[in-house]
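S.,

Sequence below, as promised.
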Amino acid sequence: MTQTHAAHTDHDHAHGASCGHVAIPHGDHVDYVHDGHLHRVHDGHYDECEPADHTPHDTHEHQHGDGCGHVSVPHGDHVDYIHDGHRHAAHDGHYDEH
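The prediction came back faster than expected:
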C-alpha cells in the first residue's frame, strides 16, 4: 500500500511520546491522531498519513464498533479501529486497511 506525501504545513506542535495525542504504530513509523487526521514525522516536517490505495482486508471476521475492545480513532468522516498494529475502516460491507 502506498501513502500520499502531503506535507502538513503550519504545524507548530511537536509530536512524540508525551505530546498527548494517540500514537499508532504504522509500518516503519508512528502516526499521531491530531484534529481528526493522522500525522507522521518526515524529513523535519509532518505529513498527512493517508493511504493512496483501496486495500480491503478480506479475511476480517471481527465486527468493529463501540465496545469491541479496539482503540477507535476519529478519521475525517468515519472512525478507524486499531487492530493488529494497523487501522481498519468500514467500507461497503468489508474493512479497508488504512
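The two ends are 9 Å apart (CA to CA).

Coffee later?
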